[in-house]
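Lecture 7, part 2: worked example. A protein chain together with magnesium ion.
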Amino acid sequence: MNETPQAGVLLSMRLSVRYGDRPDVLRDVQVNIRRGEVLGLVGQSGSGKSTLAMAVLGLLDRKQASAEGSIVCEGRDLLRLREKEFRALRGRKLALVLQSPLSALNPALKIRTQLKEAWRAHASGTPADCNNAVRLALESVTLPSTDDFLRKYPSQMSVGQAQRVLIAMAVMHRPALLIADEATSALDIITQAEILTLFRQLNRSTGMAILYISHDLASVGGICDRIAILHQGQIVELGTTEQVLTTPQHEYTRRLMAAMPKIPQPQISPQEKTEAAAAK
Ligand SMILES: Nc1ncnc2c1ncn2[C@@H]1O[C@H](COP(=O)(O)OP(=O)(O)OP(=O)(O)O)[C@@H](O)[C@H]1O
Ligand SMILES: [Mg+2]
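Predicted complex, written out as structure tokens:
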């Protein structure tokens, strides 16, 4: 199931990717990412989700992977950009948040240094401008911007705080598109819910589009406007979250739905019910 390009679209892709001489990992995937939307990309391990993300970000190893098609963003085909041109876009117009926040941060550098470096990568100004941008970025992800916090090393933070720091870096330059690749998969369920809420708040307050990648259909329901289901390198279903979750059209989506964990209901016998009612 594929899409044709249309107005209000930030990025329009038609993409096939192959590693070496193995069969295509992505097979003529056609997806549009609309301005300001949260698009979920769901599929099981190995379906090609990260390959798609890496292609959008120009991070596919050109020696190993060959990509065909086009990824058009604001009039430019990202597949045809040179690395130098990509470096100006990555971290500014296109941002990425990955799964393991503690390994994505540099363990040897204080948070303040890492946030400042992220700012200076795409902006110039006085030290006061930089400090101000760092403070605003931390506030946007509801972290303290106190000296005590800024002096911390990654190992002195919780994994949820580390993920917020990475999100602060990613949104610092107000990207048009944030790609979150399994960004909540390594978190406990409460922290996961908090980070999902944060993504949604940032999407609403800044208008940035989010491509939210997950193997977990249950986690995307609360955050995405639309969901695309990727199966063996092809989009088999694409629709609003409500359509996909309430009236899935493809057999594979139905299988994913059936595999979603259900909260077990306590089994109460009719006699126990009567006893409980009598005890009230
Ligand atoms: N650099 C590479 N060289 C060769 N094959 C690769 C490379 N990267 C990924 N692949 C293969 O491409 C397929 C898709 O991998 P990809 O990482 O895109 O899947 P995914 O949907 O992100 O999976 P996961 O949910 O486990 O992250 C897999 O079969 C994988 O083994
Ligand atoms: Mg992946």
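The chain has a mean pLDDT of 92. Residues 9-93+174-279 form a domain with the Rossmann fold fold (CATH 3.40.50.300). Keep this in mind for problem set question 3.
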